[in-house]
UniProtKB/TrEMBL annotation:
Presence of keyword NADP: no
Transmembrane found in the keyword field: no
Residues covered by the VOC domain: 9-124, 142-260
Keywords, in A-Z order: Metal-binding
Species whose genome carries this gene: Amycolatopsis magusensis
Name of this chain's protein: Catechol 2,3-dioxygenase-like lactoylglutathione lyase family enzyme
InterPro entries the record matches: Glyas_Bleomycin-R_OHBP_Dase (IPR029068), Glyas_Fos-R_dOase_dom (IPR004360), MMCE/EMCE_epimerase (IPR051785), VOC_core (IPR037523)
Superkingdom of this protein's organism: Bacteria
Length: 313
């Protein structure tokens, strides 16, 4: 039986970075986020069009790692219900539900997923005063989705379905590689989370939504002119029907500019299995550099050293 859905959306993705100053300059500069708060070696970066207090947190550390992925819940009662479900299923909790001391406050807790990533779920977080992103303003409106590499794709998908009630939207597969990516959702957005087949547990990419096609292209061009390393794009995927331009941040984490991610009628939607060896599946437009093993490997990222190790903050 499918468990009751208690998550509402993706809140933020937190990164630990060795060269903190360089990363902060990149995210708050050319990438287009706004630093809204900070402390020594810790900064909170918001998207101007988003009510979330922040969408990326950077922490200075000796080793690069994914600190955590944070999701929202509607109420503190839902937070408590999820914690009880995870405890009953022997999921390892890092903390129990309580008032949060992070920016925006709220009520939440943290736990490890099946691959050892830290996940946070919270409710009643204060919203941030945000604004309408104007025409031709090529900065992120909001956080779109996060994609995670897993060495056991089926096991990770089953864990997120069983414990967090994620639903499968679509799958990428190929005749010689089998299933390589699952697109998962907790709301009508085609995916808030995707899981990719990789050689090790790591971050695949973080995606940011821009206002529209024109702003997406202007943002892509700004990064190219700034000399930021482009991994893949610009193009338009079939699964999710969204645009894509992938770039590296200064420490080799892959970031995406996107727009027009598909909104589903969940009552009538049936997942597709797309053969990603067909060029139009990876890029409907045919404008991106061709998908290849080299392009795929660039988003394998470094093995995450933070598995089953809770971040210090």
């Amino acid at each position: 039986m499918t468990p009751r859905r208690l998550l509402t959306h993706l809140r933020h993705v937190d990164l630990a970075v060795p060269d903190y100053d360089k990363q902060l300059e990149f995210y708050s500069g050319v990438w287009g986020l706004t630093e809204v708060a900070g402390d020594t070696g810790l900064s909170f970066l918001a998207a101007e069009g988003s009510p979330e207090q922040y969408v990326v947190r950077l922490r200075k550390a000796e080793e690069k790692r994914l600190d955590l992925v944070a999701f929202g819940a509607a109420t503190r009662e839902d937070v408590d219900a999820l914690a009880e479900r995870l405890i009953a299923d022997d999921v390892k909790l890092i903390s129990t539900p309580d008032e949060l001391g992070t920016l925006g406050g709220g009520y939440g807790f943290r736990f490890f997923d099946v691959d050892g990533r830290t996940v946070e779920v919270s409710a009643e977080v204060d919203t941030r005063e945000h604004r309408r992103i104007e025409e031709k303003e090529a900065i992120p409106v909001r956080l779109s989705h996060v994609v995670l590499n897993s060495p056991d794709l089926g096991k990770t998908r089953a864990w997120y379905e069983k414990h967090l009630a994620f639903a499968l939207s679509d799958t990428l597969s190929s005749p010689h590689m089998g299933e390589v990516m699952h697109f998962m959702r907790v709301n009508p957005q085609h995916h808030s989370l995707a899981l990719a087949k990789g050689p090790h547990t790591s971050l695949h990419h973080i995606s940011f939504e821009l206002r529209g096609i024109d702003e997406y292209m202007r943002g892509t061009g700004r990064l190219l002119r700034a000399g930021v390393h482009k991994v893949w794009g610009p193009g338009r995927h079939m699964a999710g029907d969204n645009t894509f331009s992938y770039f590296f941040d200064p420490h080799g984490n892959t970031l995406e500019y996107t727009t027009e991610l598909e909104l589903l009628d969940e009552d009538s939607w049936h997942p597709h299995v797309y053969d990603f060896s067909e060029p139009e599946v990876t890029d409907q437009w045919g404008t991106a550099n061709p998908m290849s093993e080299l392009v795929a490997k660039e988003s394998f990222n470094d093995p995450d050293r933070g598995c089953f190790v809770a971040p210090p903050v």
